[in-house]
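Hypothesis: this fold can be encoded by more than one sequence.
Test: take the C-alpha cells below, design a sequence, compare later.
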C-alpha cells in the first residue's frame, strides 16, 4: 500500500487526506494544532456548498446568512437579500468537521509540528518535534505561512493581502461589507453565532492605516473593540504574472490550498479552493498509480487545477486593481455597482450573485454589459416617455419636472 504524509490539517489537508484514504492509500496527517480558530471570516459561498453538500447539512454548526449590507466610501448603505445564503462557520468547527470526516475515512491524525522534510530514496523523510516518519508522497497543506520555502508557491508581500481583525461578542444576522477607494480589499463584519468576526483585508495600505479604518468603522457603529481578541494573518493574492509560474508541485510532492497560493485574489475566498485543490491533488495521486514518473504527477495536477479554477483566479487577479481602486476616472466598481443596483434589477441580481459566490468572473463582463445595455435602453425609453408626457402637459404647465426616479436614472 502506498503511503502519503500530509502536513497541515486545514480544509486543504483534511480534504486531500480523506480522499486519498478512501482510495486505499495509507495516510498520515500531521498538524501542530489540529482543529483551531484559524484567523478567517469562515464564509462559505454557494459554489462551495454545491460542490461539498455536507457543508450545508443543517446538523452542522454554521449560520446561513441571507442579508448583506454594502457600503462604498461615504455612500449610503445598500441592503442586498441573498438568494443563495453565505454559510458562516467558526474555523474551529469547520476544521473539526473536516478532520472528523478524514478520521472516519481511515486517516491517522497526529498533533505535532513538522520541522523538516527531505528526500529519502524515492520517497520522503519527515522530521517532527519528537519523532520522524517516511512516506511515498508528500502533500504540503501548511497554509499561507508555509515554513518549507523550497516547496509550494514562492510568494512575497506583493502576492499577499494583509488581513487583520477582532472577534467581538456582538450578535448580528447580516454580513456587512465596506469598500474604500484607497484599499485593494474590503472591510467585513461576519456574524458567527454569539460573536462577529470584524476584519479588513487588502493590498497597498499599511497595517496602521487598515487597523485605524477598522477601528473607526466599529466606533462609528458603537461596537466596542478595545481589549477584544485581535488577529493578523496573510491571504495569498497572487498577481497576474505569478500565476504563470506558480509552483504547485514538484518531484514527489504536491501543494494544496494556501500553500499553493490557491485563493481568489479579488475576494480572498480560500476555503472552497483549499477543499477543491485537495480533491484534485488526490485525483492526481490516484492517477499516478498507473503511471511511472513523477513528472507526469506534477503535470497532471497542474492541468487539473488549470482546467478547473486556476483560469478564473488568474482573471480575478487581472480585475482586482481596477475593481477596488477604479483608475478609470469613473469611480470604483463597488461605488458604481451600488449606485446602479438602486435603480436596476439586473445589476441588483448580479450584485447578489457576486456576494454569494454564484457569479464567476468569466461571465461577469458580458453580464455587466448586458445589464448596462438594458439600463441604457430603459433610460432612453423612460426619457422619451417623460418627454412625451411633458409635451402633452406643456400647454397647461409652465414648470414641468422630471419624476424623481427618472431624474435619478439620468444623473
Ligand atoms: C483573516 C482572514 C479571513 C478569511 N476569510 C475567509 C472567508 O471568509 N472565506 C474563505 O473562503 N476564505 C477566507 N480566508 C482564507 C482561508 O482562511 C484560507 O484560504 C484557508 O484556511 C486555506 O486553507 P488551508 O488548509 O490551505 O490552510 P490553513 O487553513 O491555514 O491550514 C494550514 C494548517 O497547517 C498547519 N501547519 C502549518 N505548518 C505546519 C507544520 N510545520 N507542522 C504541522 N502543521 C503545520 C497549521 O497549524 C494549519 O492548521 C480568510 C483568510 C484570512 C487570513
Amino acid at each position: 500500500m502506498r503511503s502519503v504524509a500530509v502536513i497541515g490539517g486545514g480544509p486543504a489537508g483534511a480534504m486531500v487526506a480523506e480522499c486519498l484514504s478512501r482510495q486505499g492509500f495509507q495516510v498520515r496527517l500531521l498538524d501542530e494544532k489540529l482543529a483551531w480558530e484559524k484567523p478567517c471570516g469562515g464564509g462559505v459561498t454557494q459554489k462551495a456548498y454545491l460542490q461539498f453538500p455536507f457543508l450545508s447539512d443543517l446538523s452542522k454548526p454554521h449560520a446561513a446568512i441571507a442579508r448583506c449590507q454594502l457600503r462604498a466610501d461615504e455612500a449610503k448603505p445598500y441592503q442586498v437579500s441573498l438568494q443563495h445564503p453565505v454559510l458562516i462557520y467558526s474555523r474551529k468547527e469547520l476544521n473539526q468537521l473536516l478532520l472528523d470526516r478524514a478520521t472516519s475515512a481511515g486517516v491517522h491524525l497526529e498533533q505535532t509540528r513538522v520541522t523538516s522534510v527531505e528526500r529519502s530514496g524515492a520517497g520522503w523523510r519527515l522530521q517532527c518535534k519528537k519523532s520522524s516518519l517516511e512516506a511515498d508522497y508528500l502533500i504540503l497543506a501548511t497554509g499561507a505561512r508555509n515554513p518549507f520555502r523550497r516547496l509550494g508557491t514562492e510568494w512575497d508581500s506583493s502576492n499577499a493581502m494583509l488581513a487583520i481583525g477582532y472577534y467581538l461578542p456582538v450578535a448580528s444576522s447580516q454580513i456587512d461589507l465596506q469598500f474604500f477607494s484607497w484599499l485593494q480589499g474590503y472591510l467585513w463584519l461576519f456574524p458567527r453565532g454569539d460573536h462577529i468576526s470584524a476584519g479588513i483585508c487588502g493590498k497597498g495600505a499599511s497595517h496602521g492605516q487598515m487597523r485605524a479604518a477598522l477601528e473607526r468603522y466599529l466606533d462609528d457603529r458603537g461596537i466596542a473593540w478595545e481589549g477584544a481578541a485581535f488577529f493578523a494573518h496573510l491571504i495569498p493574492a497572487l498577481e497576474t504574472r505569478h500565476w504563470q509560474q506558480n509552483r504547485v508541485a514538484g518531484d514527489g510532492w504536491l501543494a494544496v490550498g494556501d500553500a499553493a497560493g490557491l485563493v481568489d485574489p479579488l475576494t480572498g475566498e480560500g476555503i472552497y479552493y483549499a477543499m477543491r485543490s485537495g480533491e484534485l491533488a488526490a485525483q492526481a495521486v490516484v492517477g499516478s498509480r498507473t503511471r511511472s514518473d513523477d513528472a507526469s504527477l506534477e503535470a497532471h495536477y497542474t492541468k487539473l487545477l488549470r482546467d478547473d479554477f486556476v483560469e478564473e483566479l488568474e482573471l480575478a487577479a487581472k480585475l482586482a486593481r481596477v475593481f477596488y481602486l477604479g483608475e478609470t476616472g469613473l469611480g470604483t466598481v463597488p461605488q458604481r455597482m451600488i449606485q446602479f443596483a438602486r435603480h436596476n434589477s439586473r445589476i441588483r441580481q448580479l450584485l447578489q450573485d457576486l456576494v454569494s459566490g454564484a457569479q464567476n468572473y468569466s461571465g461577469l463582463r458580458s453580464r455587466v454589459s448586458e445589464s448596462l445595455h438594458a439600463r441604457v435602453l430603459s433610460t432612453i425609453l423612460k426619457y422619451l416617455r417623460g418627454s412625451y408626457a411633458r409635451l402633452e402637459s406643456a400647454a397647461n404647465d409652465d414648470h414641468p419636472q422630471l419624476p424623481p426616479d427618472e431624474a435619478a436614472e439620468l444623473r
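Residues 86 and 100 are 23 Å apart (CA to CA). Confidence is low (pLDDT under 50) at residues 398-411.
Hypothesis status: open.
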